[in-house]
What does this fold into?
Amino acid sequence: MSAPPTAQLTVVEHPVLADRLTVLRHRDTAWPDFRHALFECAAILAVEVARELPVREVEVQTPLETTHGARLSAQVVVVPVLRAGLGMVDGFLRLLPEARVGHLGMARDERAHKPVDYYSRLPPGLADSWVFVLDPMLATGGSAVNALDHLKSSGATRLGLVCLVAAPEGIAAVADAHPEVRIWTAAVDRGLDHNAYIRPGLGDAGDRVFGTT
It folds into this structure.
């Protein structure tokens, strides 16, 4: 199954990203290597996401003369969806160290395949910030839609969603509920199985990044 057409979907193509994603997919990758590969993937995705950020022109004094330069002018907030999204935070902060970090906790209801909220802690000033939701897996789209709903109700207006692997069903769900939200992903996989797991996917990202399998 191919991804539904959406102008808001960006599949990031980069040879290093493709290499690290293959490491993440491999069933024999140990959790320390999985965690490091996830960090590297997130850092590459952060570079792509940051292309959208506004800058302001400044004057700068070099050792030789005065010239013009550019500085980032946006306030950035990254919001990982717990637990797995935590593995992507350091990659973003490596590039954007001044970004603030919020947290949204959602557990998966294994019977209904729907997210259940259990934690929320968000920084102030969301209305004036560029806010990026981080979650390695975009499966049914339930958690992503729920997170975006929550952030909008908290005042966020500039929203993006960053994931590693997406299913067409999840892309469609986000596009339907939040058509203005840009999605960045490293890969669009075939689809979901009867347990709502992405196939071929990479397993349970939360368990694999924290060594709880």
